[in-house]
Amino acid sequence: MKPVIVRSIAEMQKISRQQIGKIGFVPTMGYLHDGHLSLVKEAKKRSDIVVVSIYVNPAQFGPSEDLSNYPRDLNRDVDLLADLRVNYIFFPSNEEMYPDNYKTWVSVEDLTDVLCGKSRPNHFRGVTTIVTKLMNIVNPDFMFMGEKDFQQLAVLKQMGNDLNFPTEIIGCPLIREEDGLAMSSRNKYLSEEQHKQALALNKSLILAQKLFSSGIDNSEIIIERMRKLIEHTDGKIDYIEIVDPDSLQSIDKLFKGCRVLLAVYIGKTRLIDNIEITD
Ligand code: AMP
Question: Residue 149 C-alpha to ligand 1 middle, in angstroms?
C-alpha cells in the first residue's frame, strides 16, 4: 500500500493525535538513497507507525548555496517508501511551514559555532527550527537521524534535552556506497571523475584510523597526513578536525571514541564525512 501523503500541518497533527501506537519519525529533504532508507528500516523495527517528512528547508541554506538546484523526485521517493511500508509522508509547502510574518527561531549555542557552523552561518539555526516545528507537528516517540550528519545529531540531541522534548532521538550508522563514498543526495552533482576524487574523503578517514592504530595519537600530525592525501586530488578542504564527540571541541590527542570530521569541496559540491576512532 502506498503511504498517505499529508501536505497540511493541521491534518498531520490530527493524524498523530489519533495514533495509539508508537510513532517513529524520519525527517529528510527527499531524493532518498539507502542512507535514508536505513533510518526508515530502523524506524519500522522500533515503531508501530512510521512518518517520513520530505521538505527542502530553505532556512538551512545560505544565500550562495544549492537550494534551487537541490535534487527532488517525489514520485521516486514515494515508491521507495511504499516498498518499506511507510504509513505517512509529510510533504508540506514553504507557505505552510513559513507563512508570511514568520518570526520565531530556535538556536543552540556553542555546538553550532564549530565545524560546519563556521562555514555555514545560520545553517544550524535553520535545522533546529525546522526540527522543532516537525516534532510539534508529527509528535513522534522516536526520531531517527544519521551519523552522516554527526554535528547535526549532536546539536539536535542537545536541543531535545535542553527543551525537554519527549521524543527520543536515535542516531543510526553512516551508510556508504560500495566504493566507500558516504551516501548523500548531493552525490548526484558529481561527475564520474569527481566521484573518484571524492573517494579521498573516506580514504583520509581510514588513514586517520590506521595511524591511530599504529600508535600515533597527535591530532596535528594526523590532520596533516589527511590533508596531504586530499590535496593530491582537486578537492578543496573546508575543514578537517578531530573532536571530542560530546562537546565537538578540537582535541590535541586522539582517544578511542573521538571523531574525525571533514568537509571538502569537490568542484562546487561540498561533501561531509566522518569516522569514529576505534582501537
Ligand atoms: P537529508 O535528506 O540530507 O537532510 O538527510 C536526512 C537524514 O538522513 C539525516 O538524519 C541524515 O543524517 C541521514 N542521512 C543522510 N545520508 C546518510 C547516510 N549516508 N547514512 C546514514 N544516514 C544518512
Answer: 7
Catalytic residue among 33, 36, 123, 232: 36
Class of domain 4-172: alpha beta
Helix 219-231 / helix 192-213 crossing angle, nearest 10 deg: 160
Ordered by start, the domain boundaries in the chain are 4-172, 185-272
Cβ contact 52:74 at 8 Å: no
Q: Using a 6 Å cutoff on CB, does residue 151 contact ligand 1?
A: no
pLDDT in tens, 118-176: 999 999 999 999 999 999 999 999 999 999 999 999 999 999 999 999 999 999 999 99
Among 137, 42, 37, 44, CA closest to 91: 137
The pair phi, psi for residue 259, each rounded to 5°, is: -120, 140
Do residues 145 and 39 make contact, with C-beta atoms less than 8 angstroms apart? yes
Burial call 74-100: b when 16+ CB within 10 Å, e when fewer: eeebbebbeeeebbbbbbbeeebbbee
Specify whether domain 185-272 bears CATH 3.30.1300.10: yes
* Ligand 1 contacts CB of residue 29 (under 6 A): yes
Q: What are 171's strand-pairing partners?
A: 145
Does the beta carbon of 146 sit less than 6 angstroms from any atom of ligand 1?
yes
If you average pLDDT over residues 239-243, what whole number do you get?
98
11 alpha carbon – ligand 1 mean position (Å): 26
